Amino acid sequence: NAIVGVSIIGNNGKDKISVNGEKHFPMQSVFKFHIGLAMLSEIDKGKVSLEQKVEIQKKDLLLDLYSPIKDEYPDGTTLTIAEILEYTVSQSDNVGCEVLLRMLGGASAVENYFVTNKFKDVAIKFNEEQQQANWDLQFQNWTTPKAASNVLSAFYYNNKEKLLSQKSHDFIWKVMRETETGKNRLKGQLPAGTVVAHKTGSSGVNKTTGVTAAVNDIGIVFMPNGTHFFISVFVT
Fold first, then answer.
1. How confident is the model at residue 154 (pLDDT cuts 50, 70, 90)?
2. Alpha-carbon span 54 to 12, nearest angstrom
3. Cα four-point dihedral sign 105, 93, 152, 162
4. 90, 111, 128, 202: which one is catalytic?
5. Which pTM does this prediction carry?
6. Catalytic residue, candidates 29, 149, 168, 203
7. CA 221, CA 230: separation in Å to the nearest integer?
8. Residue 128 bears catalytic tag
9. Which residue from 15, 16, 2, 46 is spatially nearest to 147, judged by alpha carbons?
10. pLDDT in tens, 20-31
11. Beta carbons of 201 and 28 less than 8 angstroms apart
12. CB 63 within 8 A of CB 74
């Protein structure tokens, strides 16, 4: 009893297939990939740097949100932006996510980055704290399977007006390859050792209705023969 959306782009962009490819799906933590891209764009503009240190205070850790940062540093800590990005994207850390969104100027600033760069069907209205406090808000942070694959493709090939510097490009795809969440999703369905650069998203189960709003995974699968394909899967 679910709606599944899939978009696949292969053969250097020549082959495309989708199911419910233009339907709106809640992103959940998939949007941390988009947040990472927006932050790296700011780094490329020289506004901040990967090596810049950011203080995370104990009050930032009081939110009842999943966070390896909170688990490792219960009294607060100071991390570089590079480390916060790694926690946020590779481990889906919610404290790191909130820190990055504050630095960027909020969720709407991330959406505006994609609108400015002429990406369609990417809506980012709320942060993690807001989404997790109100079940209905996650549906306003949405994308389509086709749009998700288009973002993956554009930023991997990096040929759309040179979206990121080479350093930022290499950094985000290294972080995506190191993703630790969703071991039974895209990566778990492939032969052991397959390299997948991906980002998951999960809503959990609504305790009142028993509904699961989002089980997502988007990424690049690298084949043994040196080719690759982009795949975005959303289940609601």
1. very high
2. 39
3. positive
4. 128
5. 0.97
6. 29
7. 6
8. yes
9. 16
10. 999 999 999 999
11. yes
12. no
